[in-house]
Amino acid sequence: MEGTHPVNKKLAVALSGGAVLVLALTGCGGDDTNEKLDAWAKEVCDGVQPQAKKIADANAAIQKQTSDNSKPEDVQKTDSQAFQDMSEAYKAIGATVDKAGAPDVEDGEKKQQDAVKELNGISSSYASLKKQVDALDTKDQAKFADGLKDIATELEKLSKSGNDALRTLEEGEVGQAMNRQESCKSATASASVSAPATEG
After folding, report:
1. pLDDT tens for residues 73-111?
2. What letter does residue 74 receive in the DSSP assignment?
3. How many CB atoms lie within 10 A of CB 156?
4. What is the DSSP letter of 105?
């Protein structure tokens, strides 16, 4: 049997869902200014921008490695590196939100802590996916394809469950403040390589 199983494409589709998580870190329109909140948003957005690019690049690397004639060894190597990069990027975003402190809004501290906890959880999930992909048997094509299928299923779950605390953090004034930051706008652009555009 030549090439990898079509499940490889499923992995790419599931992975593109992961990139959507970063899109949660951008707000929708609004003009009311709040200097303290703007300063907070700038700190977060400036920290998120390079990490969003790292996630988008990892996502693109996996997309590239999904042709039917990719060798299992190459797929494993690319996916492993991509998951490591994503794990590090989400951890760094969590550290940025943690360092920025609570945004100057109602329940700001709870929203911030929930978001940090979630970002660290996503980072751990990608770290465990890296271990999973590293453990796959590249010599056995069918087993390798099955292993990828399991990873794709995990990725789908991760992309569906990952947005809640971030979305809560970004409600109302916080989202508006972030939307005013150039670095958050460019973070969205780099993270939405394969994610559908959202309107707010």
Report:
1. 999 999 999 999 999 999 999 999 999 999 999 899 999
2. H
3. 17
4. S
Q: Under the phi-then-psi rule, with left for phi > 0, alpha for psi from -120 to 50, and beta for the rest, what region is 199?
A: beta
- pLDDT attached to residue 13: 62
Question: Whole-angstrom Cα distance, residue 167 to residue 25?
Answer: 8
Measured distance CA(97)–CA(116) in Å, rounded: 6
Contact 124, 131 (CB under 8 A): no
Question: Where does residue 30 fall: left (phi above 0), alpha (psi -120 to 50 degrees), or beta otherwise?
Answer: left
* Structural tokens at position 198: 């959202």
Q: What is the pLDDT of residues 107-148, one digit of tens each?
A: 999 999 999 998 999 999 999 999 999 999 999 988 988 898
Residue keyed to tokens 């550290």? 95
Predicted local distance difference test score (pLDDT) of residue 16: 55
> Minimal CA–CA distance to 24: which of 171, 173, 194?
171
Q: How far apart are CA 54 and CA 105, in angstroms?
A: 30
Query: Which residue, among 122, 118, 126, 125, has the nearest Cα to 165 in the 3D structure?
Result: 118
- pTM for this model (two decimals): 0.81
107: tokens are: 């329940």
Instruction: Name residue, tokens 């978001």.
Output: 115
User: How many other CB atoms sit within 10 Å of the CB of residue 32?
Assistant: 10
What is the chain's length? 200
